[in-house]
Amino acid sequence: MKCTFCNEKAVYNVKYNGTALCKDHFINFFERRVKREIRNQTDLKKGHVTISVAVSGGKDSLVTLYVLNKILSERKNITLKAFTVDEGISGYRPPGIEKAFKLSRILGIEHEVISFKNEFGYTLDEIMSIDKTKISCSHCGPMRRSLMNKISMYNNADYLALGINLDDYSQSILMNVIRGDVSRYVRLAPHTGIERDGLIPRIIPLRKIPEKEVVIYAILNNIDYDNGWCPYYKEAYRNEARNIINVLEEKTPGTRQAIVKFFDETRDLLKDNYKGEMKKCRICGQPSQNEVCEVCSDLYEINQKVLKKSI
Ligand code: SF4
After folding, report:
1. For the purposes of burial, counting CB atoms within 10 Å of the CB of 59, is it exposed (0-12), middle (13-18) or buried (19 or more)?
2. DSSP 65-116
3. Coil, strand or helix: which one is 13?
4. What letter does residue 233 receive in the DSSP assignment?
5. What is the pTM of this model?
6. In angstroms, rounded to a whole number, what is the distance separating the alpha carbons of residues 256 and 52?
7. Exposure pattern of 235-253 as b/e (b: 16+ CB <10 Å)?
């Protein structure tokens, strides 16, 4: 099959807009959408801007780092800093850290690791052996978000970039709809126009790009990413949202984009009514909805369980 725009061989067939793209036109199509998202989600004209990029070592985060560097490296007022949160999941996270280090080194971007063990005293594996009353993601999600914010604050970052593709993003939207959690729905990143005290605004440059296209972009640009799956993933509630959206997308290509469009329009209407005051956790100082944040409450429970066992 030939590219719709030139005589080259097509590498990808874009079902939702009916075009076939060669390597160059695919890369161009990909980067154009990322540039548009960066323009919409950030203000890069306000003097010096630091973007902290969370890199797990998987395709989405490494492509985010690569494409941000490609698009922004000529702008002298922008610094990218990369970091990886090491949850302490044996067999899974170490290869990702290695890939994150490798790409950061190739691109000349500073990279550091922040770990659950150092910050909270436990690896996620240890937490799961202590407390089986919750699924792993319920411990891991808030802890990761807290550390991502902490390291970005430490780096004086203006924005925290997350590698989340269209598939994952549309699932997050749907999950909040299914739960009826309007407040969390409104608080989803990107945080453009809904800045909150102590919370580094998150941006999601790949949120309109399907997972498959992220994989193709990574392959076409020789980005060496880790392909592993978190061993706890099967417990994730997200799987159900993924299945629903995949079925709908198969029947009606463009469903994922439609979900994001619906989100953008409804969030704008709702955000003034769901501002919610942000407090500072009185234990760790991180932003929180309550006096004590979710992570510190969780750690208290875990420590209680450890104490009981040792008596
Ligand atoms: Fe953490 Fe769950 Fe993601 Fe695994 S799947 S890294 S446990 S949030």
Report:
1. buried
2. HHHHHHHHTT-TTEEEEEEEEE---TTTHHHHHHHHHHHHHHHT-EEEEEEH
3. strand
4. G
5. 0.94
6. 27
7. ebeeeebbeebeebbeeee
Q: Is omega for the bond preceding 210 within 30 degrees of 0, making it cis?
A: no
SS3 assignment, position 54: strand
Mutate which of 125, 230, 238, 239 for ligand 1 pocket (most atoms within 8 A of beta carbon): 230
Rg, Å, the chain Cα set:
20
Neighbour count for residue 100 (Cβ, 10 Å):
28
- Expressed in angstroms and rounded, the spacing between residue 136 Cα and the centre of ligand 1 is 7
Of the candidates 281, 51, 40, 308, the one whose C-alpha atom is nearest the C-alpha of residue 156 is 51
| Domain covering 40-276 assigned CATH 3.40.50.10380 in the classification | no
Per 3-state DSSP, the chain is made up of helix, strand and coil in percentages (nearest 5) of 50, 15, 35
Query: CB within 6 Å of ligand 1 — which residues?
Result: 87, 136-137, 140-141, 230, 232-233, 236
Residue 223 CA, ligand 1 centroid: distance in Å: 23
- Report the chain's terminal Cα–Cα distance, integer Å: 70
Ligand 1 atom index nearest CA of 140: 1
User: Which phi and psi (to 5°) does residue 87 adopt?
Assistant: -75, -20
* Distance (Å, whole) CA 98 – CA 92: 11
Residue 202's H or E segment, with its range, is: strand 202-203
φ, ψ dihedrals at 20, nearest 5°: -120, 135
**13-45 pLDDT tens trace:** 998 889 999 999 999 999 999 999 999 999 988
pLDDT per residue as tens digits for the range 238-285: 888 999 999 999 999 999 999 999 999 999 889 887 776 788 999 999
Domain ranges in the chain? 40-276
Please, where are the H alpha helices in 17-58?
23-41
